Amino acid sequence: IADVKGGPNEGLDRVGQTVVVMGWVRTLRLQSSVTFMEVNDGSCLSNMQCVLNPEAEGYDQVDSGSIVTGASVCVQGTIVESQGSKQKVELKVNKIVLVGQSDPSYPMQKKRATREFLRTKAHLRPRTNTFSAVARVRNALAYATHKFFQENGFVWVSSPIITASDCEGAGEQFCVTTLIPSSQEVTDSPVDGIPKTKDGLIDWSQDFFGKPAFLTVSGQLNAETYATALSDVYTFGPTFRAENSNTSRHLAEFWMIEPELAFADLNDDMACATAYLQYVVRHILENCKEDMEFFNTWIEKGIIDRLTDVAEKEFVQLTYTDAVELLLKTNKKFEFPVAWGCDLQSEHERYITEEAFGGCPVIIRDYPKEIKAFYMRQNDDGKTVAAMDLLVPRIGELVGGSQREERLGYLEYRLEELKLNKESYWWYLDLRRYGSVPHAGFGVGFERLVQFATGLENIRDTIPFPRSPGSAEF
Ligand code: 4AD
Ligand code: MG
């Protein structure tokens, strides 16, 4: 359908051509002499309006009620100019084949199902306008991400999902457990997929082949090893956090993009994050016009103008110290009180980007070292580190990054100060032992980026199968 209707004149150049459309029936309107059937194949938001006369081959299946909403069909016909005002062209059908019937219980019949309801139908929700548009924009953002980094000489590195290190040091990891039956004879299990031994016991070995292991919270430390060999690199893959936060911005499983720049400082890092965000936003504005118009009308009014500003205007930069001063000066009442040294809460972050700077993305830099991770480079003041967070309206923190501590002595001291197990970081410390270089990087939460780009209120609607406390059904 995108192939026919996606061009500049919405299919008028294809008038007279015979085409075959394969997709799912969205609506069916039976009139006395003619039937209108809207078919969608997911290639774009638009349906193909199919006009069926009783002479069309296979029409009896429409007449007898075999073809209904939700059914899959294969339709052959001629592209003609549409009489209606909703579309430029439609399909005058000469043959229709029912590929798969749809049971009357099909739950996607109702026009305006809530997004809460659709979360319980994660297997069918991609058949709705909203979720097919999200899927295409998510795909375009992933494509633009690779395109941006590839065009700028970065090498994509696959960081491991199973790891022993806790990059962020926050103890928010999921533990990996091995299921090894202690006896060869495994009988039917009462729990699907979990082997049961002969004596009836389920054997849980609480580790990864004898060693502790976790699902990664970030690929950064691994990316650093490649950045100190190949120069600029990036990762793009799933990460996991066992924080029990039921918010509209947190997932237990989310995708992260983590560039790592060699021979770079915090200013280079902030410049890269800005260029990246502007590039991917421009990409979807140019390449996902139909879907972005849909979000602009139905999800967040004015989002296209706001994203255009993001792509074109300079971002605001301020230090953490200045941000705290700004928060202390305002008359606005916050739930969490502000003082130098506190972690900025989402209400503070939103105030800064939405109210203090009128919806412009804001980069805050130089945070107190006490609230940041061990690997961040200490500033000369001895109190702050070269960290930065990029905040955007509605969401707050979209990007978190820093210049890394490249000085062996400082890094060892910091590990000791935080009582982290220095021995387990032997390989990470080696990078500072052998040809250390100033380097910096950041992490973009991919689902928060999709949320930002589409205007969706809840992060659970930005990923096909959201994982959050209590949801791992599909
Ligand atoms: O700020 P974070 O924790 O930074 C890191 O993990 C660094 N190692 C990144 C780096 O420097 N390479 O996470 C980075 C971003 C956040 O800004 C946020 O957008 C997203 O990841 N994020 C989450 N997104 C969804 N659900 C969660 N639970 C998230 N936690 C972080
Ligand atoms: Mg962060």
Automatic annotation (TrEMBL):
Signal peptide: none
Gene Ontology MF annotations: asparagine-tRNA ligase activity; ATP binding; nucleic acid binding
Keyword terms, alphabetized: Aminoacyl-tRNA synthetase, ATP-binding, Ligase, Nucleotide-binding, Protein biosynthesis
The keyword Aminoacyl-tRNA synthetase is annotated on this UniProt entry: yes
Keyword Ligase: yes
Boundaries of every Aminoacyl-transfer RNA synthetases class-II family profile domain copy: 136-464
The reaction(s) this protein catalyses: tRNA(Asn) + L-asparagine + ATP = L-asparaginyl-tRNA(Asn) + AMP + diphosphate + H(+)
Family: Belongs to the class-II aminoacyl-tRNA synthetase family.
Protein name from the UniProt record: asparagine--tRNA ligase
Organism, scientific name: Linum tenue
Shown part of the complete sequence: 105 to 578 of 578
